[in-house]
Amino acid sequence: QSLPQQKLLTWLSVLECVEVFAEMGTARAWGETARWTIIVLIQLAKAILRLLLLLWYKAGIQTSPPIVPLNREQQQPLHPQDVEGSSSGKDQTYVGKRSSRVVRSLQSTPSLQSRHWGSPQQREESQSRRAEEMNQPPTPLGLQETIAESVYIARPLLHLLSLGVWGQRSWKPWLLSAILDVSSLSLLSDLKDLNRRERTELRRRTILLLYYLLRSPFYDRYSEGRILFLLRLLADYVPGLGFVTR
User: Fold this and answer.
1) Most-buried pick from 120, 125, 192, 233 (CB within 10 A)?
2) Is residue 72 part of a domain?
3) Cis before 65 (ω within 30)
4) How many other β-carbons are positioned within 10 Å of the β-carbon of residue 208?
């Protein structure tokens, strides 16, 4: 990735990390009008950054969060003794004569900070496979897939616009948002040869469709009563859950 693209991803990640805090803090300090203003500004900034990544830098299907968090335990480099002896597995491991089980020899045991519980070969293979998955280029998007991703990016802005036009109690914003989400996913489902990161992102978006059951006005009309009824049943008849469910 180029340096400007990395900066865009960084700013996008920062916005996603602070948007909830900014919304709650603004509402507490200046009221509802300022809260909706900061929501619109943040969503507008996120949409602009994502469209730049999609159309200018050809970033493909964008994940959330934009920058995958670093797993420091998995990214930990090999011990110097492992690096020196990586060419000869016999120096690092011992193969049981009867069980054929591979264990690390005591001479090549690393320090406690960099110790792991697999054989050196297994760790090298997992690290190389993980690095290969992270460095895979994004899948090129055609016109249909680019439109689908653009719809997904613009959905929060269209939802906010519909809320301003029809109000928070109307079904129209809920239906519009759901239609845009389903349309985007259906258009992207035809895309083949996705890498692992992109497949994971599409699965995440599909699972997030369940959140529509918890969004107003559907939640107020249908879900709330059933969820509360279920919680009361758990509180009354399942020992130990009463404190939590109440």
Assistant:
1) 120
2) no
3) yes
4) 12
d(CA 5, CA 50): 11
Shared domain check, 59 and 13: yes
- Listed residue (187, 180, 139) closest to 161, CA to CA: 180
The answer to whether position 73 is within a domain reads: no
Percent of the chain having pLDDT more than 90?
A: 57
Q: Which residues pair with 94 in a beta bridge?
A: 103
87, pLDDT greater than 60: no
The pLDDT score that the predictor gives to residue 154 is 96
Mean pLDDT, rounded, for 193-200? 88
Closest CA to 143 of 55, 52, 243: 55
Residues 210 and 147 in one domain: yes
pLDDT digits (tens, 9 = 90+) for 7-54: 999 999 999 999 999 999 999 999 999 999 999 999 999 999 999 999
| 141 three-state secondary structure | coil
Contact 176, 182 (CB under 8 A): no
Count of domains forming the chain: 2
62 Cβ contact partners less than 8 Å away, ≥ 6 residues apart = 50, 53, 54, 149, 153, 201
Q: Do 170 and 238 reside in the same domain of the chain?
A: no
Q: Can you give the residue range of the structural domain that contains 12?
A: 3-65+143-219
Name the one residue in this structure whose structure tokens are 């709330």. 224
CA separation for the pair 97, 117 (Å, rounded): 21
The answer to whether 240 and 233 have CB atoms below 8 angstroms apart is no
